[in-house]
Amino acid sequence: MASKTFDKDTMLDLTVNMVPLVIILFFVVGFSVFNPFGFESLASGLQYGILIGSFVLLAALTYLSGKAIAGSEKTDTVYLPGQATVPGATPLHGEHEDAAAEIEESADAEAVESAEGTA
Amino acid sequence: MEVNGQLVLTVLMGLFLIAVAAWLARVENWRSYTPLAGAGAVGSTEQYVSEEKPSGVIRWLTTVDHKDIGILYGAYGLIAFVVGGLMVVVMRLELADPASTLISNTFYNSLLTSHGITMLFLFGTPIIAAFSNYFIPLLIGADDMAFPRINAIAFWLLPPAALLIWAGFFPIPDVIPAQTAWTMYTPLSAGVGSGNQMNAGVDLMLLGLHLSGVSATMGAINFIATIFTERNEKVSWANLDIFSWTILTQSGLILFAFPLLGSAILMLLLDRNFDTMFFAVEGGAILWQHLFWFFGHPEVYILVLPPMGLVSLILPRFAGRRLFGFKFVVYSTLAIGVLSFGVWAHHMFATGMDPRLRASFMAVSMAIAIPSAVKTFNWITTMWNGKIRLTTPMLFCIGFVSNFIIGGVTGVFLASIPVDLVLHDTYYVVGHFHYIVMGAIAFAGFAGLYYWFPIYTGRMYQTTLGKWHFWLSMVGTNLTFFVMVLLGYGGMPRRYATYLPEFATLHQIATVGALILFVAQVIFVWNFVQSWLEGPKVEDGDPWDLADDDLVTSEWHWFDRKLQTAIADGGEEEAELATDGGERIDDSQSTSDVSSDGGDPVAETDATSDE
């Protein structure tokens, strides 16, 4: 299920957060290899703590938000953002044909059909 | 004798408050009160707007309707904007001359402090809350906020907060305004030394600031609960609009940042009044800076993320296409939210802290530039080959992008330690962050005010004045703040009422720019007030013709429905029609039957077109 959620499109969307993660990682490695100020347990601990803490929190939030958004794309009808409650709004089926096929078999099929009917 | 006098005043004030409470309890039947939309006016003779809603002043004092509270926030924010703006006009006039001529140096310091706090806490946060209160429930299909009464309480904490923050300017004996700057660095703000900052004016300001923080935190909890639990079942995470995403992220930041500010402020108050010595010991000054900036840097994003959301929502509507890379904008918003808590000490590079620690804060500051830049590219790409309509809200959106690029790029340089050590505490920093707070945040606020003007007033603003407002604001902003960047390169330090004559020319240009900005805002206020009272009534639920490009969002649909179900003045079917919240009419009728409000019909091109 997890690999289905994080498909190619979702991973592409998440690249936007990969870039700052890579930048932080670059500095973690950089400070380890080139460290003109030496190692001191408290200062160095804080130095890496700031970087690694930011890295972990960003990675975690990226994962959770990606899972929530991509997951709901798979299970719910997708509209243009802000249009879900507008009568007659066209669902974005072209981008999620596979998901739509699954939805039709699910309990939400009726809701999808009514939305299509108004389009 | 003096103590007795104070006691009498306190008792009188207490009796007055009890009388107000008793009066409110008498005039309103609280049990019957439920929030519904409707209109009412000050001085109206009718007791109720609708069956469940009082009219006149009582409506505004007792409302828990998210739209009414949004309007209250907006009015409050704009009044604070006027106060903060007038403060800085006086400061810029003083700076037209190198010597101290117009006002004293201490009064300049007072204005500087209050301008910063007013603009950030009394204008910035509330004007965002105005949009979010009014439109988030409409955008996500909720009936109201999750906690309507907490919503009202959060707003009503703000007027006393403003009075406390400005108390030093009132004619109260022995109370003078705070002169600590908005950063309130100790030991100055702790009242240490031979200065005058032990004055009660600083205590009142701190209490006011704390109150505004409590208000913001209550609002944030409400928005998180609303967006998580009150969404229409069709509004999944994948369907959530970008403005709601930015408000959700902002609320998360507020939840983690503002309580820390509150704690630090209480510690400072204890230091000032009970000699607790939190910030008096060795390292106390640095402790304050760490505590303050752990709040202060997220505060920057608390202020800028929702305006980014506004631009992301509005700009595509006038580019005739969807926002390019919508999910890039969502994920980068969340990334900014997280990373904003790992950059606070880049405000403290010059304090002499450990270089290893400094290097890490520089690294995260570099990283946070990426999600911000990503959004910029998304906005530009959305406009690329788009069907651009240069309406006033669109102009402000484009102005936002332009100013944000300059403000952002100057900020990236400051994130670099060697550059920061040269430019720290100069006008370069002032120029940089004013490009963001005025050039970007305020511009997005104006874009929102113009874009949704038809919804919350039912009328259209004067388009020519709107464009004058934009162009004068754009010229004024760039003239004032680009010159500040140059002043910083020249070594002009911040926060001084006087300066060396060599800086006179650039300072005078900045003052001219500020006066242009002042004229622009006068035009805005005139246009805003006059159009609200007398502007042509909007009879089309889609005044921006968003349906042509299939870009109508929920709040416009709500507005359309409201227009069509409104009670017509003198109409025959008056008794049959329900106000908003009444029986729903079927779609076929709603698309063809536009109700009249009895006013003069206005040609659509005049009333609604802004091209």
Helix content of chain B: 55-70%
Radius of gyration of chain B: 25 Å
First and last CA, distance of chain B: 68 Å
- CATH architecture descriptor name of the largest domain in chain B: Up-down Bundle
CATH topology of the largest domain in chain B: Cytochrome C Oxidase, Chain A
Number of domains of chain A: 2
Q: Main interface pair?
A: A-B, 53 and 52 residues
Q: Count helical runs of chain A.
A: 5
> Which descriptor suits the 3D outline of chain B?
globular
Q: Report the order of strands and helices of chain A.
A: HHHHH
Sheet/helix structural class of chain B: mainly alpha
Number of H/I helices of chain B: 20
Organism (chain A): Haloferax marinum
Region (Disordered) (chain A): 90-119
Keywords (chain A): Membrane, Transmembrane, Transmembrane helix
Pfam families (chain A): DUF6684
Structural features:
heterodimer, A: 119 residues, mainly alpha, 5 helices, 71% helix, disordered C terminus, B: mainly alpha, Cytochrome C Oxidase, Chain A, 20 helices, globular
Describe the structure concisely for a colleague.
Chain A is mainly alpha-helical and 119 residues long. Chain A contains five helices and no strands.
